């Protein structure tokens, strides 16, 4: 009599996503400012995320490069990518000394990427970074955002985001939208829910800003077509020294 082989279904895949505003890799003001990009490189590796969405990432800055002795000789996104990760960066803002924008670091292969300008007025240059990933044969779309400081700007930028998603992301494709939303209330959350984007909402008191004494959650990870499982924020002196924001980490079931 032959032995019966029991079939064990594969474990559902967990996708770990982090978002982090890195404050351009520098903390402090004037002569007291310090270079934190090297510590941030170690921190990003510790997050152990499949997808890391970064805001305020410098491609280059001539003034800071001259000021600090150990400024990396490659763009920050490339420098921060752990071994084996792909890095994608596109510029949002140009200044007299350089440029900065959003970045995405991925443990999974990048299929393609693009940038969309969502600036609302000439005093704030804002954009979104859209990256398509191949995660175990499944196409997953990820959008990194950094919204404006003015409430009316954020509302208009969410409307632009909605139109972009309708145009560029298939309705049945898993979608992650993460970043610094600069929203101190729930208006953006309600707007995103209106077109199917939700975040893990069973944890209270998740605050990411300001890093030293966090009182508000400005950073969020919203998804469509994925099941939110949990949310966490690393805390402690080592984290608040590196940026004015704390990182946010979320897990989802694919």
Overall mean pLDDT stands at 94
Ends apart, CA distance between termini: 40 Å
Q: What is the CATH first-level class name?
A: Alpha Beta
Form type: globular
Annotation keywords:
exonuclease; alpha+beta; 20% helix; nuclease; 254 residues; 5-stranded mixed sheet; single chain; Deoxyribonuclease I, Chain A; Endo/exonuclease/phosphatase; 6-stranded mixed sheet; 13 strands; globular
Describe the overall structure.
The chain has helices at residues 37-47, 62-67, 76-80, 151-168, 187-193, 237-240, and strands at 14-21, 26-27, 34-35, 51-61, 86-94, 98-106, 110-117, 127-135, 138-146, 175-180, 219-224, 227-232, 248-253. With 254 residues, the chain is of the alpha+beta class. The protein has a single domain, classed as Endonuclease/exonuclease/phosphatase (Deoxyribonuclease I, Chain A, 4-Layer Sandwich), CATH 3.60.10.10. 39% of the residues are buried. The model has no long low-confidence stretch (mean pLDDT 94). One of its GO terms (cellular component) is membrane. Keywords: Endonuclease, Exonuclease, Hydrolase, Nuclease. InterPro entries: Endo/exonu/phosph_ase_sf, Endo/exonuclease/phosphatase, GPI-anchor_lipid_remodeler.
